[in-house]
């Protein structure tokens, strides 16, 4: 299933500007947030402005929904804290933090300003801040090398990459795949980097790009960012991808256009078909329900997965788990400066993996040998 990228969130933030002036109504936690899935919580923010407006926020997506998902009958403590401080508050601002997968809703409440911040990367998190931007409460308490998500701590956003407006040709890496070379240094989803490279007919090998080619790609990325034509691409009448603008790579595929990106996203997530498995002590068994539809979806996904380069997938994985890998680099740098042995460095990194395994998308193994750090995911 496709997750939203930071540019997708930027488009949603633009759409949500019409909600400024709305009043806070309720905050819920979705029914998918149970004991067996505690690290993947969906948030449901309900506003009032000429009627009810429902916003879903969870790891990988945030947008308005017309159909309100089911919520827990007994609200968790965090939901009650949010309701207490934002009761009847007025929404005064919606903004994207650092052009990243971080969306902030600013409210003017009886006790002053509050900020409801949604971190939409990895497994997701939600933080309520006071006017001084100190944490009132947090859905999941976490601690990293450079920030703490705990009550009364100042909120610090995770490190972010360059924005496209600050990207220069000198920032391009000298070797490797063009898409991953760009996506690794700038806050642009690989999907749209790939589109820019395709539209400009530039080489997929970054070492073959001229200064003129690099400038063309940068300018095309800036053009793409300004486009707006929400679309869901279909195979056998089932969604396989979405974008806020039409993509050249899917030009021969059935497409359904929408008047708003939120409507586009709701259609995609409501109709996407995923493989369903039952966990047992033996090999997972596929559920028979909708088997024919699942097989058709898997076949379609396989056809288009083959068209994506492996390096593009790697770039997407690194982007999703950016905070974890950034902490790996920070810890390694500190240990090297203290002249720690390879064994000691490896031990610290393994401890880090154990500590943050709930936030990492897949299983990770780390080995330090001959001056190199090998990360297998």
Q: What's the arrangement of secondary structure elements?
A:
Blueprint: H1 6-15, E1 23-29, E2 43-48, E3 52-58, E4 61-65, H2 77-86, E5 90-96, E6 102-109, E7 112-119, E8 125-129, E9 135-138, E10 142-143, E11 148-149, H3 178-183, H4 190-199, H5 211-226, E12 231-235, E13 238-243, E14 254-257, H6 261-271, E15 277-278, E16 285-286, H7 291-305, H8 310-320, H9 322-337, H10 342-356, E17 365-369, E18 372-376
Helix pairs in contact: 4-5, 9-10
Description:
- The protein is α+β, with helices and mostly antiparallel strands and 377 residues long.
- The chain is built from ten helices and 18 strands.
- Among the domains are: 6-149, ibrinogen binding protein from staphylococcus aureus domain (ibrinogen binding protein from staphylococcus aureus fold, Roll), CATH 2.30.310; 321-376.
- Strands 5-6-7-8-9 form a five-stranded antiparallel β-sheet, with helices on one face.
- A hairpin with a 2-residue loop joins strand 17 (365-369) and strand 18 (372-376).
- The chain is globular.
- The two termini are 19 Å apart.
User: Helicity level, as a percent range?
Assistant: 25-40%
H-E string: HEEEEHEEEEEEEHHHEEEHEEHHHHEE
What's the CATH first level of one domain?
Answer: Mainly Beta
Relative strand content: 15-25%
Strand order of the largest sheet: 5-6-7-8-9
The stretches of 5 or more residues where confidence is low (pLDDT under 50) are 33-39, 275-312
SSE class: alpha+beta
The residue-averaged pLDDT reads 82
Rg, nearest Å: 22 Å
CATH-level-4 superfamily name of one domain:
ibrinogen binding protein from staphylococcus aureus domain
- Tell me which CATH architecture of one domain applies here: Roll
CATH topology of one domain: ibrinogen binding protein from staphylococcus aureus fold
Number of helices: 10
Distance between the termini: 19 Å
Major sheet: size, sense and barrel closure?
5 strands, antiparallel
Q: Assembly state here?
A: single chain
* Dominant shape: globular
Q: How many beta strands in the DSSP annotation?
A: 18
């Amino acid at each position: 299933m496709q997750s939203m990228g930071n540019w997708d969130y930027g488009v949603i933030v633009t759409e949500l500007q019409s909600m400024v002036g709305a009043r806070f109504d309720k905050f819920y936690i979705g029914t998918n947030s149970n004991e067996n899935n505690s690290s993947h919580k969906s948030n449901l923010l309900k506003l009032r402005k000429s009627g009810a407006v429902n916003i879903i926020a969870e790891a990988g997506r945030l947008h308005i929904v017309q159909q309100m998902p089911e919520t827990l009958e007994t609200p968790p403590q965090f939901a009650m804290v949010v309701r207490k401080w934002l009761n009847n508050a007025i929404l005064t601002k919606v903004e994207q933090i650092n052009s990243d997968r971080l969306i902030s809703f600013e409210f003017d409440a009886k006790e002053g300003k509050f900020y409801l911040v949604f971190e939409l990367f990895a497994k997701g998190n939600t933080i309520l801040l006071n006017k001084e931007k100190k944490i009132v409460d947090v859905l999941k308490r976490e601690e990293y090398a450079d920030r703490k998500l705990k009550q009364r701590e100042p909120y610090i956003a995770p490190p972010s990459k360059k924005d496209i407006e600050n990207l220069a040709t000198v920032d391009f890496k000298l070797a490797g795949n063009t898409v991953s070379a760009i996506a690794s240094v700038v806050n642009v989803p690989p999907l749209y980097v790939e589109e820019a490279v395709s539209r400009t007919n530039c080489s997929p090998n970054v070492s073959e790009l001229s200064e003129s080619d690099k400038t063309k790609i940068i300018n095309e990325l800036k053009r793409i960012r300004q486009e707006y034509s929400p679309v869901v691409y279909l195979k056998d009448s089932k969604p396989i991808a979405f974008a806020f603008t039409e993509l050249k790579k899917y030009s021969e595929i059935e497409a359904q256009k929408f008047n708003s990106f939120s409507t586009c996203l709701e259609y995609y997530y409501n109709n996407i078909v995923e493989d369903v498995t039952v966990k047992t002590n033996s090999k997972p068994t596929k559920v028979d329900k909708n088997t024919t539809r699942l097989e058709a979806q898997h076949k379609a996904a396989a056809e288009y997965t083959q068209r994506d380069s492996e390096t593009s997938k790697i770039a997407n994985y690194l982007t999703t788990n950016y905070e974890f890998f950034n902490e790996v680099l920070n810890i390694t740098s500190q240990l090297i400066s203290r002249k720690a042995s390879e064994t000691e460095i490896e031990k610290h990194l393994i401890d880090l993996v154990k500590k943050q395994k709930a936030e990492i998308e897949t299983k990770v193994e780390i080995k330090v040998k001959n001056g190199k750090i090998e990360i297998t995911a």
